[in-house]
Amino acid sequence: MAETNWWDGDKDLVADIYSSLKKEEGKLVIYKGTSPHLHIRRYLVDWLAVQAECFNMTSHTIHLAVFLLDRIMDRDNSSNEAHLHIVAMACLLIATKFEDKEDMVIKLGRFVRRVINGIISQEEFLMLELEVLEMFQWRVSVPTAVHFIDYFLSIAVPDLEKSKGSVINGKYNAPVYIRKYTKYFLDISLQNHSFSFMKPSLLAASCIASSRVCLNLTPTWTRVLQETTSYSWEDISSYIDVMLKAHEADEMAQLKEAGQAHGMDTLGQREDIKPFVDVRRS
């Protein structure tokens, strides 16, 4: 499912693609969260994210890789932690083959061969890739939250630009910041396995709503967003709470770290992410 701006096309075609994504979403392998190795999942996901950033991979790739890893961890309780690290590499390499350009696949393939050198042979790694593909019956080109969030933002941002709230307090450009925040909350969703239980479209909707809360945009969940996503405020509110708590904890950690680094009593604020303000829909 290579990355394309399908949401910018003909309206009828966009509607057909979105409908297809929703149908495919209903066929996804259900996440159970029963792996005995959940305690190292955060480490594996962080490692995947670092590699994805180093190789300039798309968000589509890292989200697909984590999707595959989660389902494998669910089904394979016998794997040890060292083997799971190799499995994570296989998931990332498979994901990039489906989501990235060919030159990216070649670069990552070379990297993986260097990393696994001395651990398992290249032939064994290839067999592992095949095992992963067969586990999913080769149906690994699946929709993730990233595919839905791009579409939802294509509706939400123009609607925001038309409103009086496009500039916040005369300083913050809401359309720009809502994109920053949604990416931020997507990253949070990867780190916490509880979000893997959610449908990708529900996760995407929750990320956008959480972003609107942080930006103090009212109403928090507009009629346009509800009609576009098919999710009501009641459907997403509990997930928003989890995301906002994670954001608040991260913000405090960032401020504490900044204060320790500069020896400040009054801590500075990050420029790319506005301070957390929890103002819900009235």
From TrEMBL:
Q: Which residues form the Cyclin-like domain?
A: 46-134, 147-245
Can you tell which superkingdom this protein's organism belongs to? Eukaryota
The Gene Ontology biological process annotation of the record reads: cell division; mitotic cell cycle phase transition; regulation of cell cycle
Keywords, comma-separated and alphabetical: Cell cycle, Cell division, Cyclin
Domain Cyclin C-terminal positions: 143-270
PROSITE patterns the UniProt entry points to:
CYCLINS (PS00292)
This entry's Gene Ontology molecular function terms read: cyclin-dependent protein serine/threonine kinase regulator activity
Tell me which Pfam families the record gives: Cyclin_C (PF02984), Cyclin_N (PF00134)
Q: Which family does it belong to?
A: Belongs to the cyclin family.
- State the name under which the record lists this protein: Putative cyclin-J
What organism, scientifically named, is this protein from? Stichopus japonicus
